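Q: What residues go here?
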């Protein structure tokens, strides 16, 4: 009887470990993403005013040239590695460098409603999309001004990280925030669409608007279509900026991990006490 109970308890412990792994891994990933985002924001903050202005000017020139060329964006989830390499070459980034260093960041993305803070990488390689969100090649860099349409791509359902898993919870009127080399930008969601992968009409630049669209696969785990959540540039008061910055999304995952550890220790203790009370046979 004692051996049987020990086996059952061991099985329960293993099952508990398997079930708790996604929560622990997600908490670790959330911390890593927030740390990377904070590091990028600190680097931008330490840029000289002249350097920053020059970078913004260059980004706006890039966006203007991109809009004039009228190059269509491609679905990020069906691009071949060869096609991705060609697109990313336009940003002077090689796949080799991406695989080693993830490439440069272009911004950080904050979605308070989803408790999400993540770095935005310059590209959509699998390496980048497993560590954060990627800026789709042939779309605008996220800066102020008109004639801008940045498209940020993220996975759903990754075991190690939530990222855009809950993007479907966003509604019209919700806000998300982008912080890059320009001033902090706030976007109010004005359009939510589900389209086929080859339908990229809603990713085009409007010369009179400044948009950022968040894109992921849908339905969840089927991935036959694309969910497009578009935000239009809106005002971003200093008070709101401070409030958004104070939001710490790592707290909830860490609390879950603490809860899991406490439950695990309690189960182990209870199991050991129970086994000791069973007479040896």
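A:
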């Amino acid at each position: 009887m004692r051996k049987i109970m020990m086996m059952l308890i061991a099985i329960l412990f293993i099952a508990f470990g398997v079930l708790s792994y996604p929560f622990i891994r997600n908490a670790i990933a959330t911390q890593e993403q927030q740390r990377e985002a904070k590091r990028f924001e600190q680097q931008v903050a330490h840029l000289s005013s002249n350097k920053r202005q020059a970078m913004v000017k260059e980004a706006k020139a890039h966006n203007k040239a991109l809009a004039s060329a009228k190059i269509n964006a491609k679905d990020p989830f069906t691009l071949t590695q060869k096609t991705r390499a060609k697109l990313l070459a336009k940003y002077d980034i090689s796949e080799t460098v991406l695989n080693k260093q993830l490439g440069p960041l272009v911004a950080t993305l904050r979605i308070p409603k989803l408790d999400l803070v993540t770095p935005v990488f310059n590209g959509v390689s699998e390496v980048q999309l497993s560590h954060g969100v990627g800026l789709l090649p042939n779309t605008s860099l996220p800066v102020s001004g008109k004639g801008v349409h940045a498209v940020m791509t993220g996975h759903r359902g990754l075991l190690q990280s939530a990222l855009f898993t809950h993007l479907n919870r966003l509604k019209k009127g919700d806000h998300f925030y982008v912080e890059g080399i320009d001033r902090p930008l706030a976007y109010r969601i004005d359009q939510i669409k589900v389209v086929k992968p080859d339908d990229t009409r809603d990713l085009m630049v409007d010369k009179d608007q400044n948009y950022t669209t968040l894109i992921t696969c849908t339905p969840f785990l089927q991935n036959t279509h694309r969910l497009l959540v578009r935000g239009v540039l809106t005002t971003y008061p200093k008070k709101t900026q401070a409030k958004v910055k104070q939001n710490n999304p790592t707290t909830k995952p860490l609390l879950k991990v603490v809860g899991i550890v406490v439950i695990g220790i309690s189960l182990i203790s209870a199991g050991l006490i129970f086994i000791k009370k069973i007479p040896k046979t």
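A: Context that may help when evaluating the design: The first strand starts at residue 105 and ends at 111. The beta strands are 105-111, 116-121, 133-135, 148-153, 175-179, 185-195, 210-218, 225-234.
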